[in-house]
Amino acid sequence: MVPELEKATVRIRQPERVRGIIRSLREQGVAKLQVISDFDMTLSRFGCNGRRCPTSHNILDTSRVISEDGKKKLKDLLHYYYPIEIDPNRTLEEKRPLMVEWWTKAHELLVQQKIHKDDIAQIVRESEAMLRDGFKEFFDQLHKNNIPLFIFSAGVGDILEEIIRQANVFYSNVNVVSNYMDFNDDGVLTHFKGPLIHTYNKNNSVLQGTGYFQQLSTRTSIILLGDSMGDLTMADGVPSVENILKIGFLNDKVEERRGKYLDSYDIVLESDETLDVVNGILRYILTET
Ligand code: C5P
Ligand code: MG
């Protein structure tokens, strides 16, 4: 059915169930399909050249427009809060207020840096931002088949949009909800627009008023892509879900987190820097029956 599912990086707890969902997605047809995806560490790579790849926040935090003191403070925040974000032994209730603290402090520091709107393209160009291997086929397949792609990100919207723009895949079927910067008349960052999106509130609570999923009410087949336990609620605002396939990238602390990921995601991709499996599933679904 999908040869990519034989890759060594693939873990599935209930293979029969997964085959059933994929078969239904194909039977329901392209017109009913939509894709909902996280951005950082899901569409973008986790590792590159033996090092960690930057998140959209990291790209800004380490760029030349941030003072040395600002860089240090932002890095200290990352070292304090990231282990909390991915800790499998803390509940989401425990994590939520701490994530709000992290994002709020980081955004305050960024605002102090007088970042200019016109610098963003150059910051992204000079960064080590990298989309996962196979991104072109992924975006192209969705675009050619008019399948809406919703990118739901707790990262920085202006940065991630620029990454996909520079990769030449920011097509008309792509919609992004994320944390966007607001600039004054001189083009200087003054604040981040609300509502604040962090790892663990990626659900309908921050989509109120967008009407996005309501417009797509006939799209009842969902492929959800994420890398965090917080990404599992991204489709909660879809009015009627008939079939949903959840694919999770398990990038970090693989051994410790495997159990929880296998409980929650239908397909878990361990240390897989590619979109091969996603592309294989799409190719199968999009093949004329
Ligand atoms: O869930 P999502 O991928 O949208 O979350 C954004 C990512 O950005 C998280 O993985 C988090 O570790 C990272 N982050 C960061 N710096 C911040 C806030 C979040 O690198 N200040
Ligand atoms: Mg992510």
TrEMBL record:
Keywords, alphabetical: Cytoplasm, Hydrolase, Magnesium, Metal-binding, Nucleotide metabolism, Nucleotide-binding
UniProt-listed InterPro entries: HAD-like_sf, HAD_sf, Pyrimidine_nucleotidase_eu
UniProt entry tagged with the keyword Nucleus: no
Catalytic reactions of this protein: a ribonucleoside 5'-phosphate + H2O = a ribonucleoside + phosphate; CMP + H2O = cytidine + phosphate; N(7)-methyl-GMP + H2O = N(7)-methylguanosine + phosphate
Keyword ATP-binding among record annotations: no
One annotated Gene Ontology cellular component of this protein: cytoplasm
Tree of life domain: Eukaryota
EC number(s) given by UniProt: 3.1.3.5
Main subcellular location: cytoplasm
Compartments reported by the entry: Cytoplasm
A molecular function (GO) term: magnesium ion binding
Gene Ontology process terms (BP): nucleotide metabolic process
Subunit: Monomer.
NCBIfam families, sorted: HAD-SF-IE (TIGR01544)
Job of this protein: Specifically hydrolyzes 7-methylguanosine monophosphate (m(7)GMP) to 7-methylguanosine and inorganic phosphate. The specific activity for m(7)GMP may protect cells against undesired salvage of m(7)GMP and its incorporation into nucleic acids. Also has weak activity for CMP. UMP and purine nucleotides are poor substrates.
Family the entry assigns: Belongs to the pyrimidine 5'-nucleotidase family.
The protein, known as: 5'-nucleotidase
Organism: Ficedula albicollis (Collared flycatcher)
Lineage: Eukaryota, Metazoa, Chordata, Craniata, Vertebrata
